[in-house]
Amino acid sequence: xxxxxxxxxxxxxxxxxxxxxxxxIAYKAYRRTEAPSLRVLGVGFGIITLGALxxxxxNQVLSVSLEMGVLIxxxxxxxxxxxxxxxxxxxxG
Length: 93
Prior knowledge:
This is YapH protein. Helices cover about 85% and strands about 0% of the residues.
């Protein structure tokens, strides 16, 4: 394992922890307020976090190329940001 592999694992772990924390806090806020925008916000950050996790697993465990891992991550981050953007436009019910 090279230092780049180690750095990827460390950074992906930090992203997983931070993204999981944001997702959890958004979920708690949704449960407290029942605001649909907070539920969708949590889903968006969950997708972004999932992208980082899947890309890291694909690269480290499944021996997928770094380029393919970056593509997987980028696709899920783009979808996650689209969901986050949508959550910002939801009206309160």
